[in-house]
Amino acid sequence: MLLEEMFTYLLVGAVTVGLWYIFIRPMNHFEGIGVKQLRPWPVLGDLYATMFMTSSIGDFIKRAYDSFGKSRYGSIYLFNRPTLILKDPELIKQLTIKDFDHFSDHRAFISPESDPLWSNNLFSLNGQKWKEMRATLSGSFTSNKMKHMFEVINEAAQNFSTHFMKKKKIS
User: Fold this and answer.
1) Most exposed among 48, 105, 116, 170, judged by the fewest C-beta atoms under 10 Å?
2) Gap between the Cα atoms of 117 and 128, Å rounded
3) What are the residues facing 73 on neighbouring strands?
4) Is the pLDDT confidence value at 69 over 90?
5) How many CB atoms lie within 10 A of CB 70?
6) How far apart are CA 104 and CA 124, in angstroms?
7) Residue 68 in contact with residue 36, Cβ under 8 Å?
8) DSSP code of 93?
């Protein structure tokens, strides 16, 4: 009888520690390194209001953004995944332009089998495929080419609006 009770207590303790390790421990990832964070719920993270439909995803993002005050960054939890929110434009510029090679892997929103077009988007690629695609595209976004693209897009927009203004006068 004593051995069975001891085994039961060990099993309950192991399950409790396992559940803590899987669901609770990740919710302190950023707090442990000094990054401001909201108060996440176990399993749901900070999405609890959105999951219970008491708040829209837009309201959630605004509330999270505003809650970090003048800080350059903060963190939220999408379920049990820690997610960093960058607020400072200079920091965003540094990470996306100067230090881009350290941040090549992105979270998959949709599986490649479900949407092959989206899975080949630069924001969906990972690893070597991302590096190759970024090298291919970076030549297209030089300052000179962007100025030329602006002129072409501006001309197309003017033609578009002129066309619809003529249609409005006809009808």
Assistant:
1) 170
2) 18
3) 86
4) no
5) 6
6) 10
7) yes
8) H
Contact 85, 65 (CB under 8 A): yes
Q: Which two tokens stand for residue 93?
A: 């510029």
CA dist., res. 44 & res. 56, Å (int):
15
Strands (E), 43-132: 73-78, 81-86
- 61-66 long-range contacts, CB within 8 A, separation 24+: 64/38
Is the full-model pTM beyond 0.85?
no
Are 92 and 47 in contact by the 8 Å Cβ rule? The answer is no
Quick: pLDDT tens for 106-117: 676 677 778 888
Q: Which of 63, 68, 97 is nearest to 84 (CA)?
A: 68
Q: What is the pLDDT of residue 90?
A: 92
The label of the residue with tokens 């100067």 reads 98
Structure token digits, residue 146: 């962007």
